[in-house]
Amino acid sequence: xxxxxxxxxxxxxxxxxxxxxxxxxxxxxxxxxxxxxxxxxxxxxxxxxxxxxxxxxxxxxxxxxxxxxxxxxxxxxxxxxxxxxxxxxxxxxxxxxxxxxxxxxxxxxxxxxxxxxxxxxxxxxxxxxxxxxxxxxxxxxxxxxxxxxxxxxxxxxxxxxxxxxxxxxxxxxxxxxxxxxxxxxxxxxxxxxxxxxxxxxxxxxxxxxxxxxxxxxxxxxxxxxxxxxxxxxxxxxxxxxxxxxxxxxxxxxxxxxxxxxxxxxxxxxxxxxxxxxxxxxxxxxxxxxxxxxxxxxxxxxxxxxxxxxxxxxxxxxxxxxxxxxxxxxxxxxxxxxxxxxxxxxxxxxxxxxxxxxxxxxxxxxxxxxxxxxxxxxxxxxxxxxxxxxxxxxxxxxxxxxxxxxxxxxxxxxxxxxxxxxxxxxxxxxxxxxxxxxxxxxxxxxxxxxxxxxxxxxxxxxxxxxxxxxxxxxxxxxxxxxxxxxxxxxxxxxxxxxxxxxxxxxxxxxxxxxxxxxxxxxxxxxxxxxxxxxxxxxxxxxxxxxxxxxxxxxxxxxxxxxxxxxxxxxxxxxxxxxxxxxxxxxxxxxxxxxxxxxxxxxxxxxxxxxxxxxxxxxxxxxxxxxxxxxxxxxxxxxxxxxxxxxxxxxxxxxxxxxxxxxxxxxxxxxxxxxxxxxxxxxxxxxxxxxxxxxxxxxxxxxxxxxxxxxxxxxxxxxxxxxxxxxxxxxxxxxxxxxxxxxxxxxxxxxxxxxxxxxxxxxxxxxxxxxxxxxxxxxxxxxxxxxxxxxxxxxxxxxxxxxxxxxxxxxxxxxxxxxxxxxxxxxxxxxxxxxxxxxxxxxxxxxxxxxxxxxxxxxxxxxxxxxxxxxxxxxxxxxxxxxxxxxxxxxxxxxxxxxxxxxxxxxxxxxxxxxxxxxxxxxxxxx
Length: 925
Known about the structure:
By secondary structure, this protein is of the alpha+beta class. About 20% of the residues lie in helices and about 30% in strands. Strands 19, 20, 24, 25, 26, 27, 30, 31, 32 and 33 form a ten-stranded mixed β-sheet that branches. Strands 34, 37, 38, 39, 40, 41, 42, 43, 44 and 45 form a ten-stranded mixed β-sheet that branches. Strands 9, 11, 14, 16, 17, 22 and 23 form a seven-stranded mixed β-sheet that branches. Strand 28 and strand 29 form a beta hairpin. The longest helix is centred in the C-terminal third of the chain and has 22 residues, at about 635-660. The protein is globular. About 55% of the residues are buried.
């Protein structure tokens, strides 16, 4: 089953406990059978992607899943075959690699160790496994990857474009249209195209758009790196005349505003490799023989402002052979950018969903307001009939004014407006190519006649990442909040994690995602996305080690802030813990070490106070404010920077140990120890348990990072609880920084009930308050309905904090064990909090689906779980007495697959093998 198929699977819980085919595993269940069905592995991944094209890494990694609910199903060995053709993918014939039988339970991140394939080669692979009884599975269905060009020397193409033509607005350009005709005179066996169209591009072959990617290639740090795409186009070519066509849009390569780095005018590099039956090969490349025009239908495009399209200027057949391009100009050979070209190693941006408007309101004077019913990122598809020359305008916004018109003040200078000029030829259907909007409401003006709800379709646009989780509980408000988190995260994935999709910003702010990235992994398979973002961070890094607050550095914000730039240390640990991706640590270690060394220069007497942003967006005392001005609500800079830098040092210590760098590990540990001592000496009042002025964040961070001195944890925690309940009346009392850890600190220290109360408050401040005020995503500000519009996005992720993590790891009880990362071993400890009657949750880990489905009825607790094949779990049941627990009707200690039953931490604990279980507890706490 592919990850795309899993996406359908996750849409409902009905299938979560369907028994999969039994891979030949020992069954320890009294009700199970031990069959030897030998089901092969499924969901094969290469570099965490399904059948990827253009992989530049000569040693990619392989992963697969054993899809079985039989208890105790574990892999004891594997064998991988890799061949240059499907026909040779068999034992004794595989010409690239036969791993032989490898005694190992590893089924994720297995490195390729075969022959180095040639640039552009096809590589096919398959895997089989053995269980602990020595039974072999069948071979998996073949998977493949294609190799990229690997090295700059393999590019024969030249960069081409038009460095000069623009509009009166220096930040808005017309699209560049390029074409090239060529002939195929021999029997063609394979055709592969490699191209990079900066900023964004679309490729056409003989009139057909190639691929379904949009806003592609991915954003990057253009002075250092750019990405190219790879497609096989053999079936699109024919004997005789053929044509290539490319459309270039601005993207972020040509800066949408003067305050951003401008990398230059849009440009193209393209290489079409043709292989023939007689063994010959040739390349069609971008060069001065191509034709170009800027006088096409896309008269202006800009990410912030929108796209203008004049259908009267279309040129039918422009990307087909035989088109008259005599009025087009020769393409210019333009200077090559300094970028290193890399193949894509992440999921592309696509239109991932279409939604229909729920209402349409006639505002008079030919103005109509459409409500999509959901704040989203993307654009609208327009259907219209009318006379040639009619201009239809679509403006986008997240909220409405009191009179029902668009509220656009929070967009700042972004015009968020698309304009379509009709050609007058029956029904016309149009959607933009090179812009993006964050919106719920659309103002339609100039429509000929009266529009209907069918006149517009909302196209949801973002990174096409598999959904990896489902969460549902008995509290409808919490379900609405979960919905808002899902759509907020989804709307801010666009080849980088962005801060917002609507205003004139849309930057990759590091502080927004440092810890939120962990929670997002429960919603989407974001490993490759964040690994790519780590490369952006390294590319942005200055020679002295400084990392900006924004990556890619479209804004040059190099302020040496610990809590923002520290994301480059935190995120590798998230990818290791959540995905078992140890390469992220190895690949990024040098960059992280360089930053640590740079920041060490700011330490004075064991304290670092390099904090620029504070506890960003702390709930202000005045509903009109963006930031609090009350000193009692403001956390000291050193109370933020020192704990985070301490946390970074402990992470670096663990990375160094992982990589065998024991000297580095000792140095990080020693410095961390000194900082902990200095921090507590300076800020902790041992009599009261208060740090500095006592903001909730000043307590949360030392507790979260284990900086509190031994024997003081309870006092510090009690101070935090008192502050939250008395001063904040059991509401959120932190901004972005403290909110990253608040919910888990409360639950880990025995107060999941307080965390639940905070999560479900419906008055200000809180996530429920946003829901009560019609939010369908998460706001940038706790007072997003009243605050100054200068910084008031309706679709942000930074205030999610650890709420998503808390839902999965605490309420549902699904958590990775850092000692066996990637959910190889799972910690399952649900916390029935407040008035919750049930939680149904599932998470697609690298090993398969983990399920936690519990119901609480008075003093009885029923818990159905699924532990994926080739993993184990430690479970915790909410009762003190093992005799109060049964599994599938049997006493716990007699249940198959259950090991080492004990009482631990006030709960009944047990180690369990993989499989599906049904526990019932009496006399629950």
